[in-house]
Design goal:
The complex is a heterodimer of chains A (388) and B (162). Chain A is of the alpha/beta class and 388 residues long. Chain A is 41% helix and 13% strand. Chain A has 2 domains: 135 residues, Aspartate Aminotransferase, domain 1; 239 residues, 3-Layer(aba) Sandwich (Aspartate Aminotransferase, domain 2), CATH 3.40.640.10. In chain A, strand 3, helix 6 and strand 4 form a beta-alpha-beta unit. Chain A is globular, with a radius of gyration of 21 Å. The termini of chain A are far apart. Chain B is of the alpha+beta class and 162 residues long. Chain B folds into 2 domains: 40 residues; 87 residues, Alpha-Beta Plaits, CATH 3.30.70. Chain B is built from 5 helices and 6 strands. Chain B has a 4-stranded antiparallel β-sheet. Chain B has a two-stranded antiparallel sheet with strand order 5-6. The longest helix of chain B is centred in the first third of the chain and has 13 residues. The chains are: A alpha/beta (388), B alpha+beta (162). Chains A and B meet through helix 2 and helix 11 of A and helix 2 of B.
Amino acid sequence: MRDPLNKAIVDIKPSGIRKFFDIVTEMKDAISLGVGEPDFDTPWHIREEGIYSLERGRGHYTSNAGLKELRIEICNYLERRFNLRYSWDKETLVTIGGSEAIDVALRVMLDRGDEVLLPQPSYVSYEPCILMAGGKPVVIELKEEDEFKLTADEIRNACTDRTKILVLPFPNNPTGSIMTREELAPIVEIVKEKDLFVISDEIYAELTYGGKHVSIAEFDGMKERTVVINGFSKSYAMTGWRLGYACGPENIIRQMTKLHQFAIMCAPTTSQYAAIEALKNGDADVEMMCDAYEKRRRFLLHELRRMGLPCFEARGAFYVFPCIKSLGMTSEEFATKLLMEEKVAIVPGTAFGDSGEGFLRVSYAYSIEKIKVALERIERFVNNHKVG
Amino acid sequence: MELKEQILRTIDRNSKISMSELAMMLGREEAEVTAAVAEMEADKIICGYPTLINWDKVSNEKITALIEVKVTPQRGQGFDRIAERIYKFSEVETVYLMSGGFDLTVIIKGKSMREVASFVSEKLAPMEAILSTATHFVLKKYKEHGIIMEQEEEDERMIVSP
């Protein structure tokens, strides 16, 4: 029999920390600071709108790009919150989570061999998506001394004649790092100079602390070379509803919509109706959740630093990224031992790229009470393993 | 947001939190937070730190009743004087002045229906200014002070996810 599989797909290596994830899922009584989704349930008025849409029998397809009303609300929202102006019918596509938008954007923009600048540590699906789209990922290893922010020099040094796209993953999972307006300005210059396009994954935009998120698409001349990706998972605690969106130049969105049409047809109708309610009446929920995350963030940073684990001031998403190098263990060793000895599950930084070595992604999508219990155990572990 | 408002929002659902934790969460000095809390206690903005107990789980002898009271307001003192006469009874948990079909909502807790009934008939109803009372017994509490009483808090998320 012939090999039924596509070689390029088979060659994509599974996530490096598969082993760790397997151990964790076996351990039923572990407490976790390892989750990448909100602990809040979707606000009730949003769920209720989803239920109502089902009661009304709204179980049909929507247009490929998504319900008109939803796209209009998305554009209103982006303008209201981030000063971005998009046309609902030409520049907006509703997708199955931000994930689909990332995949489709890369596919419609990459020709075989085109290079994509990929800052790491970052979310696990960019690299395989680039590969599946026939592109070549060029990893930029972000540095702790820069607080894991991207610099123009790093882009310049990584650029070749084939470089076409920059993936801009801020606020960042796993580091919690953000890019301010001042820090984006030099990035904008080099992107224009090198004639690059940007896929800006802003799924955590609402979870920015001590300032407001700034989108690179807001800068002069950047809207025409940026695809902004966002969604409902993090800001409205709607991960399981699988709903995201992409906004960008008409020619790119048109091709993305075509691909989406053939692969997906349309995003789930129930989720789309619920999302309209989220955008219309959900600002207070976002504020409430953001406020809760902010308190946990300060608490966690303070406590981790107190026990001797250096943490830079992560101002986004719901992660902090402590350095564990002083303990003389790799990230995966630390995470595995912590799990075995204290039954606390935390994701090693290396799950998000080699440059995450020496760090852990600690999630604060947990109540303060749960965080406290986990911190007690982490502190005991750190004290037991102090070098010298 | 002003510090005091931040404090109130944080302790509204959890008064057990320590001053040092509160300071940490708000990114302030502990002394500053402690002083603000003390000031709000003195100003009766913070009026107490009770515990929300689901007595149904402890014993079935606690009974809560909500009494609608119609009164004649008194010259010069409006409803305040009669409200005071009512709220001074230790059985009385809550007294609100209402708009609409009646004047005061009185919530009382007693050991038994008989105890509640005797309070109403012997203490409350005979007061001169009181025109009528309507007593409603609470059968089950679903939610109080924003907290759902019976909800199981189970984390259904996967233990780790990227």
